[in-house]
Amino acid sequence: MNYKEAKEKFISTWGSLGTLWGINKAMAQIHALLWVSPEPLSMEDIMEELQISRGNTSMNLRQLMDWGIVFKESKPGERKEYFVSEKDVQELARQVAKERSRREIKPVIKTLREVSAIENDGSKKTKELIKQTKALYDLASNADIMMNKIVNQESNWITKTLMKLIN
Amino acid sequence: MNYKEAKEKFISTWGSLGTLWGINKAMAQIHALLWVSPEPLSMEDIMEELQISRGNTSMNLRQLMDWGIVFKESKPGERKEYFVSEKDVQELARQVAKERSRREIKPVIKTLREVSAIENDGSKKTKELIKQTKALYDLASNADIMMNKIVNQESNWITKTLMKLIN
DNA sequence: ATAAACTTTCAGTAATTACTGAAAGTTTAA
DNA sequence: TTAAACTTTCAGTAATTACTGAAAGTTTAT
C-alpha cells in the first residue's frame, strides 16, 4: 500500500464510520483529509481531492467549525481562506464528546426525567413505565456526567483514565 | 402528562435518538415499546401500537434479536409468538457496547492499523499520515479495550466504574 | 465607489434509506 | 397430509437526506 492508496483508504473508512454515526459522509471525509494534511487546504483543494461541489464543501466545513474541530486560517498576502483540523487527538475526542453530550444526551435526559416523573396511579403498566424510564435516566445521567468530566479536564485525562480502567 | 402521553413521548424520543445514532426509527421505537411493556407483545400488538407494517415489524424485530436485546417468548397453548425486551439496563448497555464495538470500532481499528503501517519514505506528508492515523489508532484501541472490559465484567461494573470516575 | 476574488445560501435534483404489502415460506395441530 | 395460523422475504415505492451549481452575498484592494 503506497501513500496515495493509504490516504484514500483512510478517508473512505472515516467517511463510512461517519455515516454509521449519523454524521454525513462528506463531513467525515473532509475531516479525514484535513487530519492527515500537513498543510492547510483551500476550498478548491478539498473540492478537487474529494470531487465534491463548492456548496457541499462550504456547508460541511461550516459544520466542522461548529463542532470545533476545524479552523479557518489565512495565509498572509492571500485572499483565499485555508482550513486546518484540530491535530491533537485528545482535543478532538474532547470536542466530539462535548458536542455529542449537548446534541444527543442532554435532550434525551430531559425527556426521561419528565416521563419518569408522571404520577404513579399504582397500575402495573404505569409502574413499569416509571421504573424503566428511571433506570435509563440514571444510566444516561451517569454517562453524561462522565462525558462532562472528560470535557472539563486537562487534555490527557482521557488516556490516564482509560489506563486506570484497563488495569 | 398522563400515562398515554408519557409513553408516546418516550417512544418518539427514543425513536429520534436512534436516528441520530444510525439506528432506524422503527427499530428504536419497537425497543422502546417493549422496554416499557410489562407483558410480552405479539407482532400484531406492535404493528397496531406503532402503526407500521408487518414486514417492517418483522425485519426490525429480527435486528433487535440480532443485537441481543429482544427475545421471542411463546405462551403455552398459543401459536403466536410474543416478544420481550431485555429489561435490565446494565445488560442492555453491555449488549449495545458489545455490538457497537464489533460493528463500528473493530473495523476502523483494522484500517487504522493498516494505514499507519505503510512504509515511511521520509516525506512530510507520509510522516503526517502515519503520525495522525497512529494517534487515532491508539485512541480507538483504548476505547475498544474499555468497551470489552464492560462487556466481560459482572453487570454492575458500569455503575461502579462510572461512580469511581465521577468522584 | 467599483470590481475582482472569494464564500455562502438554497431551490431543485439525485442518491440513499426505510417501509409496505402481498406472495412465499414455515410450523403446528388434527 | 392438509390446512390454518403465523412469520419472513423482497420488489416496488415512499420518505428522507445529501449534493449540486448558480445566484446572492461578502470582503478587500485600488
TrEMBL record, chains A, B:
Residues covered by the HTH marR-type domain: 28-79
InterPro entries cross-referenced by the UniProt entry: ArsR-like_HTH (IPR011991), HTH-GbsR_regulator (IPR052362), HTH_MarR-typ (IPR000835), MJ1563 (IPR026282), WH-like_DNA-bd_sf (IPR036388), WH_DNA-bd_sf (IPR036390)
Entries under CDD domains matching the protein: HTH_ARSR (cd00090)
Keywords: DNA-binding, Transcription, Transcription regulation
SUPFAM superfamilies: Winged helix' DNA-binding domain (SSF46785)
Pfam (any one): MarR_2
Annotated family: Belongs to the GbsR family.
Protein name: HTH-type transcriptional regulator
